[in-house]
Write a structure and sequence with these properties.
The chain is mostly helical. 79% of the residues lie in helices and 0% in strands. The chain is built from 14 helices and no strands. The protein has helices spanning 2-31, 36-54, 64-91, 94-101, 104-116, 122-140, 151-173, 179-194, 197-200, 207-210, 213-241, 243-247, 253-264, 271-290. Helix 3 crosses helix 8. It is globular, with a radius of gyration of 19 Å.
């Protein structure tokens, strides 16, 4: 039993490391000219097709109640989440977006308290104070005159709220269906709910851009590894370890992102970002001890 639990902890840890690099990977694609919606659509399409190879069974209609939950998971954990996250990367530094998104365990716990009535401990409140102070340092980045351009930060916060809703919806179905079935269903509804977006902003497919190694290489990484494989591992971990415990691994996402961004994008890591990162990780660790 202990060895089995270790496997799920390893799945959550590996997924966190991989997801920590996706901010940088998405930034590379944005710099290459792809839009946030195009990145999300191509990423989920590749992931959906790969899951068909892993689980080649025809889909069947579930109960209307379950299908609505699947649709909600596809919207909040798919289309809305990635549109908000990738759009945030257009307006903010990769490190900033990752650090804000690292507070998703706190948002998930707060939402669990509001929806399910679970009490928040004193350690949780203290950890929240440390973490939010760190987020403020990262967002301001030394500019305490409050001359802000908040759009990227608002989009990043919207993304973590969407992910928190996805996790709550996952609680309802995690024991009823195969993890591959859940993940593939989420991808399907994510693609379907994103499609109307292209009625207003046409989908572009520039072969000269798509043929560049850094473009198709990052798309394959995001679609097959960071989406299909990581979603399966993450959903499996949530099924075994629980939502709060699994989400606690996201505390370490910004560390991976900051290091990756420094090497790949040559982004500057100032003292405020480092201090903010330390406070966020300390706060999230304190808050996560009780939960």
């Amino acid at each position: 039993m202990r060895n089995k639990q270790f496997i799920y902890h390893a799945m959550a840890g590996v997924t966190t490391v991989i997801w920590g690099t996706t901010f940088v990977s998405s930034k590379v694609l944005l710099n290459a000219g792809l839009s946030p919606a195009e990145i999300m659509f191509e990423r989920f399409l590749l992931g959906y097709l790969f899951l068909w190879l892993l689980y080649p069974r025809l889909p069947r209609f579930h109960s209307l109640h379950d299908e609505l939950i699947f649709a909600g998971m596809g919207i909040f954990g798919g289309s809305l989440y990635f549109l908000a996250e990738n759009s945030a990367l257009v307006y903010a530094q990769t490190s900033d977006v990752s650090l804000i998104c690292a507070s998703v365990p706190l948002v998930t716990a707060i939402l669990t308290h509001l929806v399910l009535g679970e009490q928040l401990s004193r350690k949780f409140r203290l950890g929240s104070l440390f973490a939010m102070t760190g987020v403020a340092l990262v967002v301001l980045n030394g500019n305490f005159v409050l001359k802000l351009s908040p759009l990227g930060d608002i989009l990043a916060f919207a993304a973590i709220c969407c992910w928190a809703v996805y996790c709550l919806l996952m609680r309802k179905l995690r024991y009823q269906y195969n993890t591959l079935v859940i993940t593939r269903r989420v991808f399907l509804y994510g693609l379907l709910t994103l499609a109307p977006y292209f009625l207003f902003t046409p989908f572009r497919f520039d072969i000269s851009v798509m043929s560049r190694p850094e473009v198709w290489g990052n798309l394959l990484f995001l679609g097959i590894i960071a989406s299909s494989l990581c979603y399966v591992m993450w959903n499996s971990a949530m099924r075994s370890l629980g939502i709060i415990r699994t989400n606690s691994y996201l505390y370490f996402t910004p560390v991976v992102t900051i290091v990756t961004a420094a090497f790949v994008l040559s982004e500057h890591i100032g003292i405020y970002i480092v201090t903010g990162a330390a406070l966020i990780l300390l706060g999230l660790w304190i808050a996560g001890r009780k939960t």
